[in-house]
Design brief:
Elements (H helix, E strand, L loop, with lengths): L3 H18 L5 H17 L2 H18 L5 H17 L2 H18 L5 H17 L2 H18 L5 H16 L1
Helix pairs in contact: 1-2, 2-3, 3-4, 4-5, 5-6, 6-7, 7-8
């Protein structure tokens, strides 16, 4: 609904309860920190978003196996913040971590893999490296065409993005 202050109020209440009743590395705390990071990200407060995404990632790194998909989700979230900030090298670093985990843990046509390829392609596009952008966007399209109906908006969006990159080349 876009009422970020209300969302933060309730997430903060949940975190306070969790911090009193759960061990410091409990996954519910990581989820709450991630959710708070998401709210700050939507608000455009990137430093606060990174602070909470990083808290979530640190808990997940301590409590999950090294290739757990939740680690990829955390890395993707952090990459997204850096992308929004225009720090493309950091965005690629975290998007690449997420991609590597997804490549190990997910089937080759999984939508999360398509999202990772799309994220990386978008960064390369923003950097003006259109050949790399095109390569990643084509991987995105291949997966989305196999896993989604042809009229799905995600298929159309990636086709439009590919057309845009080709025009820039």
């Amino acid at each position: 609904m876009g009422d970020y202050s209300k969302a933060l109020e309730f997430y903060d209440k949940a975190v306070k309860i969790y911090e009193k009743t759960l061990p410091p590395n409990h996954r519910s705390l990581a989820t709450s920190y991630n959710n708070i990071g998401l709210v700050y990200n939507h608000m455009g407060d990137y430093s606060k978003a990174l602070e909470f995404y990083d808290k979530a990632l640190k808990i997940r790194e301590k409590t999950l196996p090294p290739n757990h998909p939740s680690l990829a989700t955390s890395s993707n979230n952090i990459g997204g913040v850096y992308n929004s900030m225009g720090d493309y090298s950091k965005a690629l670093e975290f998007y690449d971590k997420a991609l590597k985990i997804f490549q190990i843990t997910l089937p080759p046509n999984h939508p999360s893999l398509a999202t990772s390829y799309n994220n990386i392609g978008g960064v390369y596009n923003s950097m003006g490296d259109y050949s790399k952008a095109l390569s990643f966007l084509e991987k995105t399209l291949a997966i989305r065409q196999k896993s989604l109906p042809p009229t799905h908006p995600h298929v159309k969006t990636v086709i439009d993005n590919i057309d845009y990159v080709k025009k820039k080349m």
